Amino acid sequence: MQNGVKKLYGKIQKTLISLIPENWKSIYLYASVINGRNGEMYFYYYPKKIIKSKPINCYEVASKFGIDETKYNRRLKKLYEHIKELNTYAFPRWTNITIIIKNNTFTIEYKYNRLVNSHYNDEERRIIWCYKYLNTPIESLSIKDRALIDTYKEDSDIKPTIYTEFLSSTMHDKDSKSEEQENDIEDNKILNQILKY
Q1: Are residues 48 and 135 located together in one domain of the fold?
Q2: Least confidently predicted of 65-69, 88-92, 108-112, 153-157
Q3: Contacts of 113 (CB under 8 A, 6+ apart)
Q4: In terms of residue numbers, what domain contains 80?
Q5: pLDDT average, residue stretch 99-127
Q6: What is the torsional sign of CA 152, 82, 41, 133?
Q7: pTM of the model
Q8: How high is the pLDDT of residue 171?
């Protein structure tokens, strides 16, 4: 079981990084799995630039970089399948996770929120998540969204579990390729990315 989880961490890291076609500083991913079935997933990354830039939403990448959308969506789906598989190892089963790759570390935060019959809908949770993890400026939010953040309370009886590890050495090897890239090498617009600090 432990080995299976560790292997999945590696697959998630490689698949996630392979989805970013430029140098980056940090990645933040949210995913939910509801009763073993599909929930939702999205991630944002900060490009590595001299001037501070806004986070890029994963669903903007294909059009922004001229990548075949069907192929890119297949990769996103594969990433989500890895995350769903990770959920099968958990007891109790988590409902939503946040993954952060930053400063040479991989952090995963498991949460056990009640997503079914919740006080919050998917969009409200996204607003709260972006405010917390992407530091969305409070002044950029509507009055309604500010009130949502002010009154938000975690809908869970179980405290989050947090796991952190240093990235494996293969994540730094410029010549290493993810499984997806080996299978689709002609799509050279999706480059293997490494941390460059």
Answers
A1: no
A2: 153-157
A3: 95, 96, 154, 155, 156
A4: 2-113+162-183
A5: 93
A6: positive
A7: 0.83
A8: 54
Residue 72's CATH number: 3.30.500.20
Pairwise CA distance, residues 122 & 106, whole Å: 25
Residue 22 structure tokens: 């430029």
How many beta carbons lie within 10 A of that of residue 23, not counting itself?
A: 13
**Locate tokens 């299978």: which residue?**
183
Reading the block at residue 146, the tokens are: 């500010």
Residue 191 resides in a domain = no
8 plus 101 within the same structural domain: yes
Sheet with 24-34, strands from edge to edge, namely 56-57, 37-47, 24-34, 96-102, 105-111, 161-166
Mean pLDDT of 142-162: 89
C-alpha to C-alpha distance for 15 and 184, rounded to whole angstroms: 13
190 domain residue, yes or no? no
Backbone angles phi, psi at 157, to 5 degrees: -95, -10
Contact 101, 16 (CB under 8 A): yes
- Within this chain, do residues 126 and 46 fall inside the same structural domain, yes or no? no
Assess if residue 70 is contained within a domain.
yes
Q: Is residue 149 part of a domain?
A: yes
Q: Which residues pair with 172 in a beta bridge?
A: none
Question: Collapsing DSSP states into helix, strand and coil, what is residue 184?
Answer: coil
